[in-house]
Amino acid sequence: MRILDVSAITDSKQFFPKQGTLQFLQDAYKEQLNNLAQSIIQGLGNTYSASVAYVLWGCVNTGSGSNYIIGAGAILYNGEIYSVPSVSLTASGNVPVANIVTAQYTVNADPITYSDSTTGNIHNIRTITIGLATSGSGISDYSNFVFATYVTPSQVLLKGGTTAFTPSLSTDPANKGYVDAAVGVKCIFVGTLTSPASSTPTITASYNPLGLIVTAARTTSGNYTITHGLSSTNYFVMANGLRELGTTSSPYSASYVSLDDFLALTFQVYTGTGSTPRTDEPFTFQIFTHS
Predict the structure, then answer these.
(1) In the chain, what are the domain boundaries?
(2) Kind and range of the H or E run holding 76
(3) Which terminus of the chain has fewer Cβ atoms in its 10 Å neighbourhood, N or C?
(4) SS3 34
(5) What digits encode the pLDDT tens for the residues 92-113?
(6) Model confidence pTM above 0.85
(7) Model confidence over 114-132: pLDDT tens digits?
(8) Does residue 132 contact residue 143 with C-beta atoms inside 8 Å?
């Protein structure tokens, strides 16, 4: 890090800055800002190049087609960070191109008067502006900007492992593309069949993370066909008083019927636990998948 050693300076031993001293101070903060910016750029997986315009924030185009509405932002380019003002453009033959532009700070500043009575501008405000020009004519075409996307990917750690990694499948609980053990079971639908005496009973879903379309049709009193549209064979349904159609055994108070090898299930529903059915009663059922 560049830093001045001022320990020897006293009231009787003063220091008169040189041109190099001012340059040294400017390079000090530029160097550290460049280090911070590069830590972000490279930390996000980019290989740094001094000729690439890296967007640290903003500079997003919200227009469409040939209309560009580019918001303000900041860019790291060639080791320096530049502010970028917003701009609206309509491209016709040319493309949005970035260039470094220098303006002056004139509030009790530029122009200054040197000791030999000459004047000059030294308070430079350098920004990167975006305008329309021929592709490749500026420091970078807008289309070549590299945006620093600050999104932390989902990471998992294998049991007993020491290095986290980003899984290639979905980690969202409703659409999770992996199981937590050798055998995994996941509830994917909970619904209540209402108006059971109707020829087309209504199913109200209280849990349906996958957005399944589950429908019911009444065949005879107490007998229903539930269609769920699942293409896999690894699923089963559970409900109180459920048994397969055509059986004579009494249903269990909490029984299940496997849906393996079926895309629809026809079953009888009893609201009691005995052999005498109480048909056409509303009931709730659940669909599970398993690996």
Answers:
(1) 19-147, 185-290
(2) strand 73-77
(3) N
(4) helix
(5) 889 999 999 999 999 999 999 9
(6) no
(7) 999 999 999 999 999 999 9
(8) no
